[in-house]
Amino acid sequence: MLIYLRLLKESFNFAINALRNNKLRTFLSLLGVTIGIFSIIAVLAAVDSLEREIKGTMSSLDNSTIILMRFSFGPTEVPRWKREQFPDMSYDEYQYLNRSMDDVEAISYAMNVPRENIRYGDMTVEKVEIGAITEGYYDIEALQLETGRFFNEAESVSGSPVIVLGHEVANNLFGSSDPIGQQVRLYGRKFSVIGVLKKEGMNIFGNSKDEAALLPVNVVRRIYGDNNRNTFPQIVIKPEAGVDNAEFIAKLKQQLRSYRGLKPDEIDNFFVNQLQGFADLIDNITSQMNFIGLIISGFSLLVGGFGIANIMFVSVKERTNLIGIQKSLGAKNRFILFQFLFEAVILAVIGGLIGLFLVWLVSLAASQFTGEFQFILSPWNMFLGTAVSAAIGLVSGIIPAISASKLDPVEAIRTGM
């Protein structure tokens, strides 16, 4: 064991001497490994960071959450002309499902409406995102309040003029004053502020509840009506934990088909979108991005491998005399083999570590410039970069190392003289 530790130390010294004595040649040869590792780990780190950010954005919603609407989140075999004829989800259907469906933890009716300006005295916050929802959405998305409360079922059903403000909206309107109980103007009428959401920051899609306002959907229904195709009404359902999703969805479809009077031979005129499917789609996209990035980066590693092999062939040629002396003094073939193999691995790892260092610098700079979005170089990616570097060194150095180990000691000494 000690002899191999000594061998590793000598190989490390030979690798460092190669860097010192032939700086330009070694630098150019290691450049391929450095660029290859930089490309691979940069791609993996970027995709991992993107995936983490997207899933973090979705973390407030359970993957089992179901969204009923006339649109599909993913590809569908239903032709476009037929989809355009699908009716919107109605408030009456929401009430029916709320009464008839079992194993439901929370259910909500929601409408997408344009941004609006909110005023308080002389202060105005422009283009505030309006969340027109029923009281059940509080439990579906696990909203967190900084102060006050959320509107209840009675206020939701009656369409009471109450409003819950996002953190930034409340801060811009009221500053350090207490907003609870104050009156703000929206849609030309007054709304009482009953709650303020906790600050959550911007997500990857550029949205944030910090810049939103939530109010009972029935207030918005009176303004926009129930036949406005631009509000994209939807019913959001969160099943209870442990419920069989396939069975739950089957029952949900049956209930809605029955309510809409669809015949057995007619297709569903609605879509049951599940967030798990959206999460699977994200995983599929990120996997493809990783695969494409790895293929492109693989060409850089191939060039780097040839560079390491070139260094090792030159190193064998320069140290032919030394190899002959070592073998004449009793050094075995495997000793010579491991000596050059370790040297190749060490050189490749040095190139890989430089690549990882560059990725780290780029991730720090990118995180500073992008603000909320954080590029993260995970320990797994660092380990992967080091392991791939070592593997490149091993593969690239094996042939030069074998050729060195098979040299005849007499011929090696004569050739080196």
Automatic annotation (TrEMBL):
It is a multi-pass membrane protein. The chain crosses the membrane at residues 27-47, 291-314, 335-362, 382-404. InterPro entries: ABC3_permease_C, MacB_PCD, Macrolide_Exporter_MacB. Keywords: Cell membrane, Membrane, Transmembrane, Transmembrane helix. It is found in: Cell membrane. Pfam families: FtsX (PF02687), MacB_PCD (PF12704). GO terms for molecular function: transmembrane transporter activity. Its main location: membrane. It comes from the Bacteria. Residues 26-254 form the MacB-like periplasmic core domain. One of its GO terms (cellular component) is plasma membrane. Residues 295-409 form the ABC3 transporter permease C-terminal domain. This is FtsX-like permease family protein. It comes from Antarcticibacterium flavum.
